[in-house]
Amino acid sequence: CPAGTYNPNPGQTVCTSCPPGSYSSTTGNVACQNCPAGTYNPNPGQTACTVCPPGTFSSTTGNVACQNCPANTYNPSSGQTACLACPSGSSSNPGSTECTVNSSDSDCDGIADGLDKCAGGNDAVDNNNDGLPDCKYPPAYNQIISAWKCGNNKVYVCHSGNTICINKSALAAHMAHGDFLGPCGNVSCDNDCDGVVNSLDKCAGGNDAVDNNNDGLPDCKYPPVYSQIKSSWKCGNNKVYICHSGTTMCINYSNLASHMAHGDYLGPCGNASCNNENEAGDFNNDRSDAQLSSVETDDATLYPNPATGEVWLDLSSLEGLACTVRLTDVRGVLVQQVPVAAAGFEPLRLDLSGLSVGLYFVQVQADNQVLKPMKLVVEKN
């Protein structure tokens, strides 16, 4: 019998083709061989089997087809009997030859979820400059940032979602059980990009950065008198915009209190937005609508960025205006405030020497206008 055929019985005048999933590579066979694992054969009468292509596998013998690697697994090579699991923080579709790192940043530390070592912590802190996140690979005690210390030789760790204070000597044991260095939720997100983190937002989706009456409270939640409401939040004589159940409405100012009592907030829905896109359409009439910018706004420039011991703020476009410069951390806590009697052409120096490494926001209020917050990254000096 030729290769690719067989004959198990005596006295035959013809040979039988090997069935799919098998083969015979020599002549005179009384039986065919099953295709080995990692190969397949869809046709009868074959003298060899075909290796499974990348992204597929066959774990048994005698296959007429290979299987796609399941979702969240991959196979970069041919002829494989199993697929590889995607590393933590990555994923794949069925039949993939590689995995894709998840690019979302759920804890807003600037590190993609797929690369996070401390989910919910701050992977961006590397105070000893070893190229590794301190939350997962702690440095010596004197190199741990002050915000992560809670006493003499004591540090905060995130343990099962709860922040606890422990002795530094016990840190290794906690790390071995999956805890990480630093408080839980050490970095907070700002989904509406108003410069106020979610945990401190009074008007989720609104603009908490606007404080036109300078009472230290967001106007969207604690409205000022009508004359002090920003013009782009007004829609007629003694009428204002409010956000009601996700819809922008124009109401009489006299009805504002009752709407606020039911959970509405002052100002259009989506009045502060991300990616330089204002979701409120025509409401972007004035520069006090806070939108994040990495180093500058229309009226102020921050440099250098990232910075170490100092940073300079150019306010020359606001010449003659009284300004207040506020520096807040990612939790929205005020860490520095500088009054400027009258902005001029000389840049303003901000001293960063006492600040921990991390992300901060610089916001300028000029008269009754609150400029867009600027991100500032402080690095180790």
Radius of gyration: 32 Å
Count of beta strands: 28
Shape: elongated
- Name the average pLDDT: 85
Describe the sheet with the most strands: 5 strands, antiparallel
Can you summarize this structure?
By secondary structure, the chain is mainly beta. It has 2 helices and 28 strands.
Structure overview:
By secondary structure, the chain is mainly β. Helices cover 3% and strands 26% of the residues. The chain has 2 helices and 28 strands. The protein has helices spanning 171-176, 256-261; strands at residues 5-6, 16-17, 22-23, 33-34, 39-40, 50-51, 56-57, 67-68, 73-74, 84-85, 90-91, 100-101, 149-151, 154-159, 162-167, 180-181, 234-236, 239-244, 247-252, 265-266, 301-303, 310-314, 323-329, 334-340, 348-351, 358-366, 369-370, 374-378. Strands 23, 24, 26, 27 and 28 form a 5-stranded antiparallel β-sheet that branches. Strands 13, 14, 15 and 16 form a 4-stranded antiparallel β-sheet that branches. It is elongated, with a radius of gyration of 32 Å. It starts with a strand and ends with a strand. The model is unreliable at 275-296 (pLDDT under 50).
Topology, element by element:
Elements (H helix, E strand, L loop, with lengths): L4 E2 L9 E2 L4 E2 L9 E2 L4 E2 L9 E2 L4 E2 L9 E2 L4 E2 L9 E2 L4 E2 L8 E2 L47 E3 L2 E6 L2 E6 L3 H6 L3 E2 L52 E3 L2 E6 L2 E6 L3 H6 L3 E2 L34 E3 L6 E5 L8 E7 L4 E7 L7 E4 L6 E9 L2 E2 L3 E5 L3
Antiparallel strand pairs: 1-2, 3-4, 5-6, 7-8, 9-10, 11-12, 13-14, 14-15, 14-16, 17-18, 18-19, 18-20, 21-22, 22-25, 23-24, 23-26, 26-27, 26-28
Defining traits:
mainly beta; 381 residues
